[in-house]
């Protein structure tokens, strides 16, 4: 028995070592952009190959998710979590995503402006660049803004500036994580709410709430909203600098390209928000407050491949229970509500509300069996 346990421990240690370098898969979507251009030049059909990244992310990854299966590794809280949290490699990898994202935007604009594409190919290319932005800028930016070191805070803010969504840095940490899975949170979708009802409210509320939260913070410090102490001015200002650079390179078409890829990226973010908390709620206590956030208030998905691409974002239940925990030590919890597939599959499903409701509503109802009245 002891030797069997020891062998299993060695196996899990080996998988952790493999996962360490497998997180380099975050570079794959950007590399596929490069490959799609080469394929188009080599074989023609440039309009078709402009969609290669979308095919990879939303078709191939879901298939291989189910072939490869679930992640068997949960780092030990007492030994492995402290050790892994200190490893510099994981931090460097996230910080390197900033220059990679900037390069992707510039390269994406160059290809769009210099390649003969019909409007269909142009649409496919912008959707592809925006999808890379969702994976690199937004997903990695989300990891960084939860950390204390200033370099990570700034890198996270700059990544969000790359996709014109700087308000997320403020609203997500000070708003979403406070009110998650309550009616006060626009990023927590309600039971029976379609994606298309959710998105407009999420766009508007999260933008306005970021400014409200920043105004309250500055007021406590005796400072004006319209001062350089307002970090939103910095992030949105940097976004317009990026737009200006694209304008200087390619004119107004370049400006339109920058904001279009931004829209795709932050829309995918809000779709993921929709998926992560659909129908879940924190119970209201007798004192009028909501119960403390725990691993039961976010949908979890433990498919290994997508978790490697997304720095374990799908272990979202543990993230909300422990917001400052680094991605490499996020844990899977069986008690958390479990999605039937990885995020890429769920994004496609969410685009078709009847299918989404058919799959997810029974899961929500089963999770809250005996408390169905709270879903209304």
UniProtKB/TrEMBL annotation:
Species in which this protein is naturally found: Oleispira antarctica RB-8
Lineage: Bacteria, Pseudomonadati, Pseudomonadota, Gammaproteobacteria, Oceanospirillales
GO terms, biological process: lipid metabolic process
CDD domains: Alkane-hydroxylase
Protein name: Alkane 1-monooxygenase
Enzyme type, top EC level: oxidoreductase
Entry keyword Nuclease: no
Residue ranges of domain Fatty acid desaturase in the record: 118-347
PANTHER family linked: ALKANE 1-MONOOXYGENASE 1
E.C. numbers: 1.14.15.1
Pfam families referenced in this protein's UniProt entry, alphabetically: FA_desaturase
Name of the gene: alkB2
N-terminal signal peptide: none
